[in-house]
Design brief:
Two copies of one chain form a homodimer. Chain A is α+β, with helices and mostly antiparallel strands. Chain A has two domains: 135 residues, Nucleoside Triphosphate Pyrophosphohydrolase (Alpha-Beta Complex); 67 residues, Winged helix-like DNA-binding domain superfamily/Winged helix DNA-binding domain (Arc Repressor Mutant, subunit A), CATH 1.10.10.10. Chain A is 27% helix and 29% strand. In chain A, strands 1, 2, 3, 4, 5, 6 and 7 form a seven-stranded mixed β-sheet that branches. In chain A, β1 and β2 form a beta hairpin. Chain A is elongated and about 65 Å long. At the A-B interface, β1, β4 and β5 of A face β1, β4 and β5 of B. β1 of chain A pairs antiparallel with β1 of chain B. Chain B binds a DNA duplex (27 and 27 nucleotides) through α5.
Chain lengths: 232, 232
DNA sequence: TCAAAAGTGTTCGAATTACACCCATGG
DNA sequence: CCATGGGTGTAATTCGAACACTTTTGA
């Protein structure tokens, strides 16, 4: 342990991996970078941590400035700090991921950043080590979602069970038995059935549900398993 | 997203929460701080990230300088970056946790740091936000160990099943049924039985086992559950 | 010989899976 | 009137918790 003198001060950045779901596809929000280096290339939304600001605050501010959204699910992923990750100057970046309902977001987009949603599977190459960040985030979200009802953060206020199922199938890249999925999900006791039906995807129509927020909050740290054991 | 000019450069530190197990108790390694502020108070082992060094390397170097150990389990926990967490100057700290077998460590201790092992339940107050770091690490290790065979990192090369059990009981603060535990553990197929017995704790003696490293590595990311559901 | 820890076997109920089948309805 | 997705019912199986019982051996 050495003293404070003659230490190396560095830039601290925050980069946000913003995931969204539109009812069909899992997407990621990218911006077209407006500064050198790598101007006009696609990048995660990010920024530098300011003097009086905690890192969490910085992440929240960056997210809000782009999406206009507050109260969105935002979690620290991890730090990326290779000495040469930013060619201009040593910059340590703290990656955060956000989960948002795309529809909620659409209207409030700040166009200054030239942001665009890309289906996860068709995203363009990214600058610096942002590819690695996205991969890490995808892996982590999968991991966490296998135990926590995390993915509800991606859904709109009211949603149908088949929608939830296709979200899980998209995230985990698997096929699920809809009959067992329905039962597992309703058994979890997290949903409240509404009277309305969504008739877009079937003639019979699927009932809308909303989250039971109380139970959701209380049960959040508990384990849930929507993924059958046999499916790697 | 703003440019690189006029940015706030900050100190980046690494702090290590070092957990160890001596066969009976889970312990944490602390050092007596030798610089101001808070000189002579207990603290996590830490240091600043140097210019050419990645954060992971910095953490590894710090760990090695204290314990003399390499190849120890070391994982990034998360960043602590409140503006006032270090009273001297804004410092962002990346917390890492390490899991080590205490016996392995004993001989190589670097005495320069006045380090000492404390049973987790009897640790002294710590400086800055180190308490919060330790709490976060404890919670996270519990969480991860509930699904991964993480705790084997704390055990010596050869160990008995009752030892593993008391480790789990210590970490999770629960009592486990030894008969079910034995079966679960052997069913996981991670252990190789040795001929030797440990006779210290019983007259009958308990067989030593060693890890099946191949299976351990391959199965590491898979889920395992040693903790019964009923025990919060 | 007996106390105490290590380890095996057995039972029972809950949870998981696979899958047959019914429901509602727009074209 | 039938194809299509939504949803219920049910049998077969696995899994986990509880617990009776055997084994070993030093004191």
């Amino acid at each position: 342990m050495t003293g404070y003198t003659e230490k190396n001060r560095m830039l601290i950045a925050v980069d946000c991996i913003i995931f969204g779901f539109d009812g069909e596809t899992v997407k990621i929000l990218l911006i077209k970078r407006d500064i050198e280096p790598e101007k006009d290339k696609w990048s995660l939304m990010g920024g530098f941590v300011q003097a009086g600001e905690s890192i969490d605050e910085a992440a929240q501010n960056i997210l809000t400035s782009l999406t206009g959204l507050n109260g969105v699910y935002l979690e620290q992923l991890r730090v990326f700090g290779n000495p040469d990750r930013d060619p201009v100057e040593r910059t340590v970046s703290v990656a955060y991921f956000a989960l948002i309902d795309i529809n909620k977001y659409k209207k409030q987009l700040n166009h200054r950043f030239h942001a665009e949603w890309f289906p996860i599977k068709e995203k363009p190459p990214l600058i610096f080590d942002h590819e690695e960040m996205v991969e890490t985030a995808k892996t982590y979200v999968r991991y966490k979602a296998a135990h926590h009802p995390l993915l509800f953060e991606l859904l709109p206020k009211k949603f149908t069970i088949p929608q939830v199922q296709s979200l899980y199938e998209g995230i985990f890249n698997i096929q699920l038995d809809n009959r067992n999925f329905i039962r597992k999900l309703t058994a979890a006791n997290l949903l409240i059935k509404l009277d309305e039906k969504d008739k877009l995807n079937s003639k019979k129509g699927a009932f809308y549900f909303k989250l039971d927020k109380k139970r959701y909050k209380t049960n959040f740290p508990n384990l849930l398993s929507f993924i059958p054991k046999g499916s790697k």
